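Try this one yourself first.
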């Protein structure tokens, strides 16, 4: 059986940079240090080394670090070379490593995949790490950090232990089922399953982590010339939409994703809504798309006649700076994108509203896969609660344990792992 290949890759930012960190992981990591640095330094202490290739030519002066496995990030022998971050330096060191027997360049996510395979992290933590690397807002960072730090995994392990305890009670009943005085499940058994099921249901009702990536979707709607595009540009602080006094200037949906106060938003500017019979063919298509966006919105800012917007929309009295401005009696906000009147208050209210709909800061959030697995566990527990036959109850509890195992990666498929770890960069 062939030895596991030793992998290497640049784990710091793309060159040129002040420092380049090249990570080496696998059974030949120590031999790679000897080949380039002439020795293996003291474990977990940075040591200055002159790196040379196979011909003895000097490549760079760098700091070398040695981390013997299995107590490393990947669960195997690990080395790092902290060299100068120029392109030529990085290329030369990587070339020298590639020339060594048993070494090859890492594939995307391969370091993290080895950490998972060697039990250093579980699947939920790996998914949290992937989300952390792609986080662009404070809310995304906080939620991803909670999952990467094992918050979800610890909760799932606690649920699994509870189910194991319930299974033990059922097994105890089954052990006595052949005896003359057969035992019954304890009276509290159904209550305990119900309490666990409710706890899981509370998690399932939380906002999903995908909402953090998509952002809180705010659609600006109303008739032509209501000030939608001007307000849209002011909210995203960019001239993304063309503004004009000519009716029907916005013919299609325009989306922009921005962060306000660390909260991700997707703002959507739409075509002016009016009787389709008065619009040309292209504008009519834009109106149809605008109506579709109203159904997708988390929140609609209605700039049209008061009371004519969709249910739950915020009434916005826009263009407050214009001559002949007609205020709204029940306006949530009166704004002028031209003068800035009311914009700060509107943005603050949007952030507050979005925070209520998105995962809470630092709170572990479920992605679609995790939500589906946890839903399977909840379904199994609900089935067990409605049964009286201990054999059938035991089978439902086994299904719940399997769902937990699949959630954290004790039981999974290679295709799913390929998809997950393919999201990572090469040096991670």
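Now uncover the answer:
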């Amino acid at each position: 059986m062939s030895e596991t290949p030793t992998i290497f890759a640049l784990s710091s930012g793309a060159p040129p940079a002040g420092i380049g960190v090249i990570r080496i992981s696998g059974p030949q990591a120590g031999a790679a240090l000897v080949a380039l640095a002439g020795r293996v330094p003291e474990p977990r202490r940075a040591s200055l080394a002159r790196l040379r290739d196979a011909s003895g030519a000097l490549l760079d002066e760098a700091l070398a670090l040695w981390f013997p496995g299995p107590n490393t990030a990947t669960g195997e022998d690990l080395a790092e070379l902290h060299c100068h971050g120029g392109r030529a330096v990085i290329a030369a060191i990587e070339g020298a490593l590639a020339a060594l027997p048993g070494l090859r360049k890492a594939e995307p996510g391969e370091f993290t995949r080895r950490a998972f395979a060697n039990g250093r992290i579980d699947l939920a933590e790996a998914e949290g790490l992937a989300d952390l690397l792609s986080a662009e807002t404070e809310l995304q960072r906080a939620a991803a950090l909670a999952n990467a730090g094992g918050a979800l995994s610890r909760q799932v392990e606690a649920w699994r232990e509870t189910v194991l305890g319930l299974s033990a009670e059922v097994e105890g009943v089954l052990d006595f089922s052949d005896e003359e005085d057969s035992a019954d499940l304890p009276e509290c058994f159904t209550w305990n399953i119900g309490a666990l099921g409710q706890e899981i249901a509370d998690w399932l009702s939380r906002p999903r982590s995908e909402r953090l990536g998509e952002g809180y979707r705010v659609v600006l709607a109303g008739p032509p010339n209501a000030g939608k595009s001007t307000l849209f540009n002011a909210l995203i602080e960019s001239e993304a939409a063309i503004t004009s006094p000519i009716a029907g200037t916005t013919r299609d949906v325009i989306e922009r994703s921005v962060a306000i106060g660390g909260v991700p938003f997707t703002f959507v500017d739409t075509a002016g809504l009016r009787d389709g019979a008065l619009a040309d063919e292209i504008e009519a298509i834009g109106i149809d798309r605008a109506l579709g966006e109203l159904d997708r919105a988390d929140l609609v800012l209605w700039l049209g006649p008061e009371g004519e917007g969709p249910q739950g929309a915020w009434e916005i009295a826009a263009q407050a700076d214009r001559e002949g401005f007609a205020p709204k009696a029940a306006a949530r906000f009166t704004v002028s994108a031209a003068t800035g009147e009311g914009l700060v208050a509107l943005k603050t209210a949007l952030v507050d509203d979005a925070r209520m709909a998105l995962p809470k800061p630092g709170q572990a959030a479920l992605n679609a896969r995790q939500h589906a697995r946890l839903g399977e566990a909840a379904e199994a527990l609900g089935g067990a609660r409605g049964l009286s036959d201990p054999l059938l109850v035991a089978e439902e509890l086994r299904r719940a344990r399997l769902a937990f195992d699949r959630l954290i990666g004790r039981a999974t498929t290679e295709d799913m792992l390929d998809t997950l770890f393919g999201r990572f960069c090469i040096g991670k």
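Discussion: The domain at 126-207+365-409 is CATH 1.20.120.430 (Four Helix Bundle (Hemerythrin (Met), subunit A)). The first strand starts at residue 6 and ends at 10.
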